[in-house]
Amino acid sequence: MKGVKSSLSYAIGQVKLEAAWLRQKLPLRPMACLVKSACDGHLQPARSTSKRKTQLGQPHGTKLRTSHQPSDISTFRHSTPSRSVFAPVPLHRPPTTHRPPSTATIVIAMPSFGSLPDELIQQILQYLEPEHVLATVALVSHRLNRIADEPLLWKYYCQTRFRYWQSEHRFHDKLRGQLHDVNWKALYLLRLRRNSRIAHLVDGIVASRVSRLEKTEQICQYGYDAKDYLLTQCRVDESVEDVLARRYYSCTVLDSIHRSLAIEEWAKYQRFIQRVSPTVSNIERLNGGMRLERALGAFDMFMLHDNEGDLDEICKLLDDIASRFRAANPDLDRATTRGKAIALARWLHANNMTGLNDPTEETYRYLRNCLIGRALRDDQHPSLPIISAAIYSALASRSGFEAYPCALPNQVHAIVLAPPGVSLDGAVLSPGQANHQQTMFLDPYGSDEEVSVDHIQNLLFRLGIFAGHDDMLRPTSTDLIVMRTAQNIRASFTSFRTIDRPLSQLIPMIELNRGDWARNLQPALYSMIWASIMMVPILPENDEVRWDWQQDVRDLLTYFYEYFPEDSWLIEKYVCPMYDTFAAPTHQQSNWELPSKRVRDQIRDIRHVDASARVPRRRSELADGIRVRFRVGQVFKHKRYDYHGIILGWTTEGAGGITNWDQSSPSRESWRGYSEPYYRCMVGTDGSDHHIIAEGSIEAVKLRGGLEVLPTEIKDLVPMAGKFFKRWDGEAGVFVSNLRELFPED
Fold first, then answer.
1. HSE-up of residue 258 (Cα within 13 Å, Cβ side)
2. Are 470 and 556 part of one and the same domain?
3. Closest by CA position to 517, among listed 360, 363, 717
4. Which of 53-57, 411-415, 540-544 has the lowest mean pLDDT?
5. Is residue 159 part of a domain?
6. Where is this region: Disordered (predicted)?
């Protein structure tokens, strides 16, 4: 066995060695050099069938053997001083020993590269970059060209070079299918071309504000095919010249793609409602065309940024947890429904997978507790009762029994359903009882034992609810669970805004990862509004529902115009068609009367502004006697309120004159007649970049050094500062402006 392991280790070492040597040598030897080497005798590529002896890898020279040489190593006396292009290098060079001079020069060589079987060469090529294989290796010989064209090699490249795939590819289905049913090389080259196009668009977005939204929408059309490249830009090295801008805009595009997947998940409910029929099963009716974990995971997508935990990864986490539960309970399949239900509840509590550790009124409202993806990834797995019940239900479906959240007032339990015709304890029910499905209740948030119906009814009595208990003690549909989760997110947002405490004490309420609280504020509320819109059935005859829906749309459009203009394509795709459907039938007389026309006109105006260049503001053109003291990129402290901020722009036309230069800001009339400079700023109190501050209230802060010298609230704004700046200049103590088109002299 030791001999086998030793031989295997040696073979693996040789494979890695050959790949490393190819990477080092081949780029330095263009085809002209390879042809010349072949003519000189260093390399003999195949020219025709009549010259087989000169093909790649055929050894030449006189074969010798020395008395001190191991029997498995051949030696050759070469007629040329240089090594063949594909001659391998030993993995470990033997120690140098002093030997008497010899009259003959002996060159020890390993078996030649060309003598290796095709399968081993293919393994070696896996260590090379695919572009290198295409541009160099495949051109060396007919044999290498054939090996480099093998579908198995390109399938490997597709699997290892790209992690995320747009659903249109059905990539995972392709992996399970027959190898030759897919043109793997063409698929890889398609992704390569798309990456090249995406890289070009990202460069344009970072370089100029003109047509940023248009380029963003073009990237978003690629969907998840763009994610791999965007992630590399979101995590680009600090040494890059425009690191902050590149990270910010790449993350902005990625955020829009993530939101599109979340909204598409909720849109399944709208499509289900339109085709629902009396023959639909109870399970389908409860799910509403969605899967519970994905419908709740859609909220995570609004705040995912460049982190792990998208919808597919949430499902995989649940699959892994279910596998662990099954491994801990090998006899699970033989247990009754009640036994399975209680076993799962106990296992979840034993592993701290649900609930909160010592919750208080304040920690209960933390944003992270509302997100199922966050609860699954976090070491402590914090979750509200509704998320705990959802996790339990998702794991139950993977463990062989049926469970759903049961949304009671002030509390959410899990309700477990016995199979039809069978009791919870496995007994076959009589024909008279078979029509009634037995149920049991659990509280995954706070207990690992069954909760009696009497206990729940007493809870309802204490809340003043004396009727309608039977309707409440039923599974709650997925769309209502989504709506209730949205209200929990609103409550977290409201708590953050209303609690009167220093900001540093409130940040944990909205923070998911260190320093990302400012990036989560607006997306959290944005997700809640989108859910409220998408979870409303299309009932054009219901005036009350239609009115509430239109109010939600107004809130959504306000957020869209001010914070998320890159989502124009999502508004057009989902909101505008629904807007027309919710319009009263009497108003649907002609196209120009449709409610969506106004929305589409506003989107057209936004795109027009995006494609237009703005008139720059120059200090050298200011009137005599007017002086602007501070520059774009300076860090300041408010003289009265002591908070810190960053200067984004300036005007001498009054406070209203600064709002018009940004594409996503509403237009206002300038305050004419005022000569005191005003500055538009991003401040650390809320992460907003819409604050207007007079020059007299600003005190510049002198800073020198890396990002660590910045005030704490400014450090948290650094990811968002990329919207306006390229990087932090530690020597000058300012953020380097990326607004030169607007303020060329700053």
1. 29
2. no
3. 717
4. 53-57
5. no
6. 43-78
Output the CA–CA distances (angstroms, integers) from residue 444 to 393, 395, 424, in the order listed: 10, 12, 18
Least confident of 102-111, 248-257, 498-507, 646-655: 102-111
HSE (CB half, 13 Å, CA atoms) of 265? Answer: 29
Within-domain flag for 416: yes
Phi-psi region of 691 (alpha: psi -120 to 50; beta: other; left: phi over 0): beta
pLDDT by residue (tens digit) across 538-562? 655 566 777 778 888 899 999 999 9
Please tell me whether residues 560 and 498 are part of one structural domain: no
> How far apart, in whole angstroms, are the C-alpha atoms of residue 693 and residue 195?
42
Using DSSP, state whether 522 is helix, strand or coil.
helix
> Domain check: are 365 and 497 in the same one?
yes
Give the number of domains in the chain: 5
Does the residue 381 lie in any domain? Answer: yes
Check pLDDT > 50 for residue 50: no
- DSSP class of residue 224? G
Instruction: Please answer whether residues 62 and 76 qualify as being in contact, where contact means their C-beta atoms are separated by less than 8 angstroms.
Output: yes
The sign of the torsion formed by the CA atoms of 394, 395, 398, 402 equals negative
Shared domain check, 213 and 67: no
Q: pTM higher than 0.70, yes or no? A: yes
**Domain containing 566: what range?**
536-610
Q: Are 78 and 108 in contact (CB under 8 A)?
A: no
- Pair 541, 664 in one domain: no
Q: Where are the alpha helices (DSSP H) in 463-542?
A: 469-472, 478-498, 503-510, 517-534
